[in-house]
Amino acid sequence: MKAVIAIDSFKGSLSSMEAGKATADGIKRVFPDAETVIKPVADGGEGTVEALVSGLEGCLAEAEVSDPLGRRIKAVYGILPDNTAVIEMSAASGLPLLSASERDVMHATTYGTGELILDAVKRGCRNFIIGIGGSATNDGGIGCLQALGFGMLDKDGKQVGYGAQGLSQLVRITDENVIPELEYCRFYVACDVRNPLCGENGCSRIFAPQKGASEAIIDPMDVSMRSYAELTAGFNPSASPDTAGAGAAGGLGFALMYYLNAQICQGADLIIKRTGLEEAVKGADIVITGEGCLDDQTAMGKAPIGIAALAKAHGKPVIAFSGAVRHGARLCNEKGIDAFFPVLRSVCTLEEAMDAENARSAIADTAEQVFRTIRMFSKTFI
Q1: Where among 246, 267, 288 does a domain terminate?
Q2: Cβ-Cβ contacts under 8 Å for 366 (sequence gap 6 or more)
Q3: 173: region left, alpha or beta (phi > 0 left; psi from -120 to 50 alpha)
Q4: Example GO biological process term (predicted)?
Q5: Rg, the chain, Cα only
Q6: What's the CATH number where 68 sits?
Q7: In the predicted model, what is the mean pLDDT of the chain?
Q8: What is the pTM (predicted TM-score) of this model?
Q9: Are residues 25 and 86 in the same domain?
């Protein structure tokens, strides 16, 4: 039997690879000679660096960068064996870096994300995978561009300030001081947000309130975004604020697309391609996926559903393990997951359930019992 295991992280408990290894342990108790292939899973958000670095035997790098409010912090990113840099923008420009009282889109910047890119370029990286979930910003990505040498200039020819306030001061864009290595860099952006840059569904209206924006500043920010888009069209005639994903991460998606020629990809699809999961699935007898909680949100296109769709394209059975199952999880059956199994073995507190050793044991024990059932009812794998 060959089992391909591609489980998303059990956030706060086990990484993708740790959950996969626990599943493999349970399978081996029943089928000692089984071939278990573990592939990392992520969707471009939190855990992407950890998943790809651990799954592809990369390494971690650390750089001193600006946080969303310009304070110096240490941020970590990954470098894969082929020198591809894997960056989570939230490591430098993310909402979790701020307390609730510090959320301030008028001054929050993506400058630190640009510094992470710059650090990776200096280390020789020319290919980039960037996850842009969890931002604290609504600056259109101009901070990131400033860190890479773009001139985002005010009426006096000086670099504008940080955040949405800086964006409102922007009147001219230059590229004569852009780092020369950028010409040889390729960017792939993991992004599941489809919102445009401006308008009723744009980043200012939809996402800025959760980042500290009051109702009074939303329309002025949207006006600044539209002006920025017009300036960008003068710089890059193909630029459109209506492009799907332009409004991701407070407009960072727009900046990466039209200043760095980035390719926007569905997060899970990008990781699947990068890890060679499809080739592994082709030769599998069964595919195992899952995540910390299965519910109706999973069925709307999260990583386990992408994996299930891939498996079904090759005619493979799919089962899933999760820490918990909530309302709407049955929709996952309609999306390619043949059966799913919560792994909690007894009534316990959330803290006990999230304990890494408890979670590891629960997954392995559940996998063992599921595969005992498979062995009993099928001769296929014997």
Answers
A1: 267
A2: 26, 321, 341, 342, 343, 345
A3: beta
A4: organic acid phosphorylation
A5: 22
A6: 3.90.1510.10
A7: 94
A8: 0.86
A9: no
